Fold this sequence. Notes:
Number of helices: 9
Order of helices and strands: HHHHHHHHH
Largest sheet: none
Structural class: mainly alpha
Helix content: over 70%
Amino acid sequence: xxxxxxxxxxxxxxxxxxxxxxxxxxxxxxxxxxxxxxxxxxxxxxxxxxxxxxxxxxxxxxxxxxxxxxxxxxxxxxxxxxxxxxxxxxxxxxxxxxxxxxxxxxxxxxxxxxxxxxxxxxxxxxxxxxxxxxxxxxxxxxxxxxxxxxxxxxxxxxxxxxxxxxxxxxxxxxxxxxxxxxxxxxxxxxxxxxxxxxxxxxxxxxxxxxxxxxxxxxxxxxxxxxxxxxxxxxxxxxxxxxxxxxx
Length: 247
């Protein structure tokens, strides 16, 4: 647990460096622009399609039998919103993982982990496959667990558990790609895979913290960089050095 807390604190310190703050809002803003624009043009079509699906289920028959036909459209609007929000979050995380991660990694590694030799075990194709596979698995899990979002504590617990999976899957590969060999990457996963899930779950809680949740995609990337490089340092038996205090 100490390793996780250390990574979170170091990531917070890195986040509020001017170079990272200049980057921090872009994934969230870009995702909001993309999905806000799509919703502006297609919201009515999305709601109509979802209402059409509801109309072909037993739910519609039940609602009509109780003179609650209007509830079908309300349910379709709510379902469209439940679809839109996770898509925006996933898009912001993907932008951070694909576009911003290399810059963040150079920044953090140069300041805090200059003693770790770069062995370039990762590839661009590996990064793309990792991201695509992670999002596909997340989408399946999200659809399967969607009904649970309507029941009390599950509305909070399920998003956090799904975030734990997605966060560690999207960012662990790129955090180690430049520095670890394939064998070292597997060793870190075997030694610290559970900790990566726990780190992802704790970061999922940040989505409920005002303001900081806007910076969440970059903060997640920084946290996984700090955690993974620290684990790689321990795997190689490199003594820890004090981080640089320079810009």
